[in-house]
Amino acid sequence: MSRRKKKSPTGEMSIVDHVKEFRRRLLISLAAVVVGTIIGFIWYQLTIQIWGIRIPSLGEILRGPYCSLPPESRAAFTADGGCRLLATGPFDPFMLRLKVSALVGVVLASPVWLAQVWGFITPGLMKNERRWTSVFVSIAVVLFVAGAVLAYFIVAFGLEFLLTIGDETQTTALTGDRYFGFLLMLLLIFGVSFEVPLIIGMLNVAGVLTYDSIKDKRRIIIMALFVFAAFMTPGQDPVSMLALAVSLTLLVEVAIQFCRINDRRREKQRPDWLDEDDLSASPLDAAPGGTDAPQPLEAPEAVEPTPQASFRSTGSDFRDVL
Question: What is the SS3 string spanning 105-168?
Answer without folding.
Answer: HHHHCHHHHHHHHHHHHHHHCCHHHHHHHHHHHHHHHHHHHHHHHHHHHHHHHHHHHHHCCCCC
